[in-house]
Write a structure and sequence with these properties.
The complex is a heterodimer of chains A (521) and B (247). Chain A is built from 19 helices and twelve strands. Chain A has 521 residues and is an alpha/beta fold. Chain B has one domain: Rossmann fold (3-Layer(aba) Sandwich). The chains are: A alpha/beta (521), B alpha/beta (247). Chains A and B meet through helix 16, helix 17 and helix 19 of A and helix 2, helix 3 and helix 5 of B.
């Protein structure tokens, strides 16, 4: 469905390294039954019809996968428990043991099947080309190829998706591929001809859900490509896989899966062709093409203006609290570690200095997202299982400690040598001199740059969504996509970030003025 | 009270101290004179361990400081630094602390003196150097002369057996210099042992009990001020005094 190819390559590399030492897992089905919950992982940011915040109660999720999870849980006689995770990291959450299954538009591929237990498909997906209604030059799929001498058509796809592979395979260089992160972003780009985007190859199941929202789009040709959305369980978790398979077949047979898919306008000929549906006496009735009467349909409901601000604003404010908690826990830690590293480098024995210099280079030279990933997903492989929130704080603190160490090193070096000499001449030990004389002065010097970094940290907390922490940015994306209120919620989000960083800016300039006064000699 | 024996030190290929031997008795004011680069400041800083040395030894009271690094030297240094105070050319007051806090810092944190006792002592010391009205001033708001007087009070607060002055008036204009000189003269009167590196000839002549002229890492000539200033025996001394007069 989503996920960029770049990341997948990195993932497979890390996965290949860590898979060797994978810890032994117990029987998943037993665990589920004992616990009484089926913990299923999905990403609410993906939006409808998969999993997205409900309109009437945005703290709860809806979507066809929510319904399927509930249906499966019911068949296993347990409760479904939704666990939020960044889409491309859901398999890692499964490895960590935070969830029992991944149920979020993952396509069956040989690669995935070699890593995870894959269920029989709960949905057979196809791909649909979309173009602008008024684009008279695009009437069939073949029109995308254009004529010699014309500019190449630009086609929006989700990075790393089956759609991208399809275009590469069938069109090659005849068209230009433009990568997008979310399905609605790609559809909007086509409708507004943003960046010269002419068409979008979209998961067919998404199209009916959003058709009302993008009236300027038309379907181009018949659906193409075909594949399976499957559930992942941990490898070797056979009893759970069997139980899920039985439940899916059962739901196909008795029509309950059709009911769910019909609600989201996803039931079609392709599903019907599976030909599994029977009546109560067990007789096949011809394919289940007839809509079940009385089923209400769910499609995208736009929520705009004051309404959306009133309904979703409090959720964003709550997520902002997480951002604040992360920042206020991580920054003091970062400063302390940074100070220790700087002191070690300047005053410690030489070998220690070298080790610390390497620490700074490694931490500073690698991306925060990778550090978070290692702490959250790789450390459990060696038996260190850290809660997501604390892993986020640890990752941020370590990452920023390298920068604070450099700031502190500069600050400490700015203190005239005479200060240390005067302290030593008064009989102080080096440690006492550092603690009482040098560090307090260096701290005054570093306050403005450290505060500056603090402001940057507020915004970097957004990266923590890769390890399931839902902070302000993540919350914004999921609600903006599920309501279409990109502008309104974007403004609120921006205001919330400003409200966090502006007081710090004021503090910085106050400290700068104070320092200037103190330094006057 | 301070005995220096055959002290050697080199910076790379340059020998900055080439066999200094010197004795300072209790209550004696010893002034080090001589051209820049002669090793005066290096010698002074070696006495309380701000500079290392390669050969020889320094004895303060019964504490012996040798050149070899190690725990024994650190221990000796701690002992010497508690007994010997130092006043720097650049004052080196702690800029983040008030005048009073500068003075009480070491008595409280090094000697473990109770805070109110340290404050009472600091008040009387700052009064003695004429700064009773500047207790709460930050160093940045004090003149150079005032800062140096706080620095002297800070050294005195440790009740040192000797004080090392490293060109204490060199960064001051004449008026501020006079303030500091009068404070130091007052200390001389009270029998404080001290070694003073200075270029201020009048001051040197007034306070010194003995004068050592240093040149090229050696003591070129030693003697009472009268003899050094009026009847120098060494060519080096004569040259130096002539130049000093011309300036």
């Amino acid at each position: 469905m989503r996920a960029t190819i770049r990341w997948r390559v990195v993932w497979w590399a890390i996965v290949a390294v860590t898979a060797v030492s994978g810890p032994a897992r117990g029987d998943g089905l037993d665990d589920v039954k004992k616990r009484g919950t089926l913990r299923w992982g999905a990403d609410q940011e993906g939006g409808g019809p998969f999993v997205y915040p409900r309109n009437d109660d945005p703290t709860k999720m809806q979507g066809f996968e929510v319904d399927i999870a509930e249906l499966l849980a019911k068949r296993l006689c347990v409760k479904a428990e939704f666990t939020q995770g960044q889409w491309e990291k859901l398999p890692d959450l499964l490895d960590r043991g935070d969830i029992d299954i991944v149920l979020n538009g993952y396509e069956w591929t040989e690669q995935w099947a070699s890593r995870y237990g894959t269920s029989i498909p709960y949905y057979v997906y196809e791909l649909q080309f979309l173009a602008r209604q008024d684009d008279s030059l695009l009437m069939t799929i073949e029109d995308l190829r254009g004529k010699p001498g014309e500019r190449r058509r630009r086609i929006a796809v989700l990075g790393g998706s089956a759609a991208e592979l399809y275009i590469e395979e069938h069109f090659g260089d005849a068209v230009e591929i433009v990568n997008f992160e979310g399905p609605t972003d790609a559809m909007r780009a086509v409708e507004t001809a943003n960046d010269g985007v002419d068409a979008n190859l979209q998961d067919l199941c998404v199209v009916p859900f959003y058709e009302s929202r993008f009236p300027g789009l038309k379907r181009l040709g018949e659906p193409v490509g075909l594949g399976y959305y499957v559930i992942f369980v941990r490898q070797g978790d056979t009893p759970l896989l069997h139980a899920l398979n039985d439940a899916i077949v059962e739901a196909l047979r008795d029509g309950s899966l059709r009911q769910i898919l019909q609600r989201y306008k996803m039931w079609n000929m392709t599903q019907a062709r599976r030909g599994l549906e029977t009546n109560e006496s067990g007789e096949f009735t011809g394919g289940g093409l007839v809509a079940i009467s009385g089923a209400e349909e769910v499609t995208f409901v736009a929520e705009r203006g004051w309404n959306v601000i009133r309904n979703r604003g409090p959720l964003l404010a709550k997520a902002a609290l997480i951002t604040i908690e992360l920042s206020f826990c991580a920054m003091p830690l970062a400063v302390l570690i940074g100070l220790a590293v700087a002191l070690g480098r300047l005053y410690g024995p030489r070998p220690l200095g070298r080790v610390l210099a390497l620490y700074v280079e490694v931490i500073r030279g690698t991306p925060l997202v990778l550090q978070l990933y290692v702490i959250f997903f790789v450390l459990p492989e060696i038996g260190l299982n850290i809660h997501a929130f604390w892993a986020a704080i640890l990752g941020l603190a370590l990452n920023y400690s390298a920068y604070e160490a450099e700031i502190y090193r500069a600050g400490l070096q700015a203190i005239p040598r005479g200060q240390m000499e005067a302290a030593l001449a008064l009989g102080m030990s080096r440690g006492l001199a550092l603690r009482r004389i040098i560090v307090p002065q260096a701290t005054r010097i570093v306050i403005p740059p450290v505060t500056n970094d603090f402001i940057a940290l507020f915004k970097d907390t957004a990266v923590c969504s890769v390890i399931t922490v839902v902070e302000l940015s993540k919350q914004y994306y999921s609600h903006a996509r599920s309501t279409g209120a990109i502008l309104e919620l974007g403004l609120i989000t921006a205001l919330l970030y400003l409200a966090m960083s502006y007081p710090l800016s004021i503090f910085t300039s106050y400290m700068e003025k104070r320092l200037a006064r103190e330094r006057r000699t | 009270m301070i005995q220096i024996n055959d002290l050697h030190k080199r910076f790379g290929n340059t020998e900055v101290l080439s066999g200094i031997t010197m004795h300072v008795r209790r209550g004696e004011v010893s002034v080090l004179l001589g051209p820049s680069g002669g090793g005066k400041s290096t010698l002074l800083r070696a006495i309380n361990g701000l500079e290392t040395f390669d050969r020889g030894q320094i004895q303060v009271g019964d504490v012996v400081l040798g050149p070899e690094p190690g725990p024994a030297r650190d221990e000796a240094l701690r002992n010497i630094r508690r007994r010997v105070g130092m006043v720097f050319q650049q004052f080196n007051l702690f800029p983040h602390r008030t005048a009073l806090e500068n003075v009480i810092e070491a008595p409280i944190h090094v000697l473990g003196k109770p805070r109110d006792e340290a404050i009472a002592q600091a008040r009387s010391l700052l009064d003695r150097v004429g700064l009773a009205h500047k207790l709460d001033a930050m160093p940045g708001n004090l003149s150079g002369g005032q800062q140096q007087r706080v620095a002297i009070a800070r050294a005195l607060a440790m009740e040192p057996e000797a004080i090392l002055f490293d060109e204490p008036t060199a960064s001051l204009d004449p008026r501020m210099m006079a303030e500091v000189v009068s404070v130091i003269t007052d200390l001389v009167g009270s029998g404080q042992t001290m070694i003073v590196v200075t270029h201020a000839m009048g001051f040197a002549r007034r306070v010194a009990h003995s004068v050592h002229v240093m040149h090229a890492g050696r003591v070129a000539e030693s003697g009472p001020p009268q003899q050094i200033f009026e009847d120098p025996r060494e060519e080096v001394t004569r040259q130096f005094l002539t130049q000093a007069k011309e300036n």
